[in-house]
Amino acid sequence: MKANNQSEKEYKKIDWMITLLPLGIIVALCVLFFCMPEQSNAVLSQIRFVLGDTFGTYYLIIGLGVFLISFYVAGSKYGNIVLGGQDEKPKFSFFAWGSMMFTAGLAADILFYSFSEWILYATDPHIAELGSIQDWASVYPIFHWSLIPWGFYLVLAVAFGFMLHVRKRERQKYSEACRPILGKHTDGWGGRIIDLLAVFALIAGTATTFSLATPLMASVINELFHVELSRTAVTIVILIVTCIIYTYSLLHGFKGISFLAKSCIYLFFGLLAFVLLFGGEARYIVETGFSALGRMVQNFFELATFTDPERTTSFPQNWTIFYWAYWMVWCVAAPFFIGSISRGRTVRQTIVGGYVFGVGSTIISFIILGNYSLGAQVMGKADFLAIYEKSGDLYEVIISIIRTLPCAPLVLVLLLLTMIAFYATSFDSIALIASCYSYHRLKEDETPHKVVELMWCVLLILLPIALVFSDSSMSNLQSVSIIAAFPVGAVIVLIVASFLKDAKKYMEEIKK
């Protein structure tokens, strides 16, 4: 009888609309992608064109604006606010905190893009407009993955951390962060719509990430074992195995997530160190990376506001706008998780520490892995651009790059393990936040029921599998993020404005 009462009590705590409606729509989308892949991709492309091309400046304004606000918040009086009690100490060490933050914010796609992104830009006519491949192909990767993306994460992380640890709010949802401006409408349809948009964006972001990088893991397995298995079949097996790992980790709570995150960081930096020290291109990697970093900083505002109004190359529409949209949809889960693990840190420590650990690690990855192959290309040691032009397959190009490294099989194993660890760590944090969304109210010291966590672990894997089956191109995967990010961008602005209003009120309260 007691067990039945407990189950009934848990049942009533679940927000079934936020849980079941997205589930139904995701299942419907999966069926469409399975049954009508070409028609589905055509519709996606058309919607993406309207939002990304016609309204592209919208994404650029939000990206630059949030980045500038992050510096204002960190440097202002709000930077002194402790995310928790005024004398509270950080819950996690800087390394554990930074590891969880970095791996929650970036999945295994950082490795996919670190190896190959310069190739995508080197073949773009916009690079020829700017100058040489040597000067510019390594600039855009660190621009698209550093300051503005982490600006999104960190401003929202302190907003959510303030909501959870200072205001002690029990509704761990996107809409709750808007309460200082929305007021009573937070509990009405306005709040419900915001939360549904957030869940859809969350699923879109995970689908895009999983679908982009997991085929590389399939290619690695084929290369290691010298087999020619179907990439689609191997990718789906990898998705299922990764789902099992992150589900196991999540069911062990923050202890499991922290262990997996630290393991991932050791593997990640081990891979970077091997390529830098034993790849034979250390001098070129460091010097080109240093130059690229300087050129990015020098031209930052020009890169951030370039719209190509004449559409001579449509470079910002194809890349910069996609990336800002990509980060916006990831902003549903990653900042919530960063905010939850930042208890005891000040707003300033969270933002500055996030930029140091998050941006620093990201830039190092692109400088080392990207410039290794760029160096081989510009110095005539290999022709990766020719391989890409011939096959159009970035996964094959990355395998070709790794073959040029000493102990290539060892590097392949290390890459595979690191990608699995990245995915598992990213998605157990996402599944945890999604599980919190399924509750009407959840106190700070409460955790979601294991069944709810398990359901989200499975749900997050369905759409990526459908996208892999539909053989979606990179353009179509980009479309998923651009479409989902359009309404979420407005919500992000609302959350930032709400935080500034509430933080101002809090500062006045503690002065009394």
TrEMBL record:
<keyword id="KW-0812">Transmembrane</keyword>
<dbReference type="GO" id="GO:0005886">
    <property type="term" value="C:plasma membrane"/>
</dbReference>
<keyword id="KW-1133">Transmembrane helix</keyword>
<protein>
    <submittedName>
        <fullName>BCCT family transporter</fullName>
    </submittedName>
</protein>
<feature type="transmembrane region" description="Helical">
    <location>
        <begin position="321"/>
        <end position="339"/>
    </location>
</feature>
<feature type="transmembrane region" description="Helical">
    <location>
        <begin position="233"/>
        <end position="251"/>
    </location>
</feature>
<comment type="similarity">
    <text>Belongs to the BCCT transporter (TC 2.A.15) family.</text>
</comment>
<feature type="transmembrane region" description="Helical">
    <location>
        <begin position="56"/>
        <end position="74"/>
    </location>
</feature>
<feature type="transmembrane region" description="Helical">
    <location>
        <begin position="410"/>
        <end position="439"/>
    </location>
</feature>
<feature type="transmembrane region" description="Helical">
    <location>
        <begin position="193"/>
        <end position="213"/>
    </location>
</feature>
<feature type="transmembrane region" description="Helical">
    <location>
        <begin position="16"/>
        <end position="36"/>
    </location>
</feature>
<keyword id="KW-0472">Membrane</keyword>
<feature type="transmembrane region" description="Helical">
    <location>
        <begin position="263"/>
        <end position="286"/>
    </location>
</feature>
<feature type="transmembrane region" description="Helical">
    <location>
        <begin position="482"/>
        <end position="500"/>
    </location>
</feature>
<dbReference type="GO" id="GO:0022857">
    <property type="term" value="F:transmembrane transporter activity"/>
</dbReference>
<feature type="transmembrane region" description="Helical">
    <location>
        <begin position="142"/>
        <end position="164"/>
    </location>
</feature>
<keyword id="KW-0813">Transport</keyword>
<keyword id="KW-1003">Cell membrane</keyword>
<dbReference type="InterPro" id="IPR000060">
    <property type="entry name" value="BCCT_transptr"/>
</dbReference>
<dbReference type="Pfam" id="PF02028">
    <property type="entry name" value="BCCT"/>
</dbReference>
<feature type="transmembrane region" description="Helical">
    <location>
        <begin position="451"/>
        <end position="470"/>
    </location>
</feature>
<feature type="transmembrane region" description="Helical">
    <location>
        <begin position="94"/>
        <end position="115"/>
    </location>
</feature>
<feature type="transmembrane region" description="Helical">
    <location>
        <begin position="351"/>
        <end position="374"/>
    </location>
</feature>
